[in-house]
Write a structure and sequence with these properties.
Layout (H helix, E strand, L loop, with lengths): L17 E7 L2 E7 L23 H19 L25
Antiparallel strand pairs: 1-2
């Protein structure tokens, strides 16, 4: 029996995504773990589903900052950005540089 139907925001890796039925303190719930196909700062989902469940603005802000730090770490492997304070233009993956 289908009891919930929504489209997730983007593509997921189905072989790595899981769900479990759990019980804690007498409450039953479903824990869902989704692995995104595209893991880039520009692909930070603003909601889990296409039409609902928007992330809290502060949580979204924190996620975007973390993704930008991860991007800088990949682009500059000799530096440590783990303690860096991110400010300025970081939404949607930060500034896009075209050095040509």
């Amino acid at each position: 029996k289908q009891w919930y139907q929504r489209r997730v925001r983007g593509s997921i890796v189905t072989d790595e995504s899981t769900w479990t039925l759990e019980e804690e303190d007498g409450l039953r719930f479903i824990r869902i773990f989704l692995v995104k196909c595209i893991k880039t700062p520009q692909n930070c989902w603003k909601s889990l589903f296409q039409s609902s469940c928007n992330a809290d603005p502060l949580t979204l802000d924190t996620m975007q900052k973390r993704f930008l730090q991860e991007r800088y770490q990949r682009e500059n492997p000799g530096f440590d950005f783990s303690g860096a304070d991110v400010s300025g233009q970081y939404q949607d993956g930060g500034p896009q540089f075209n050095f040509q």
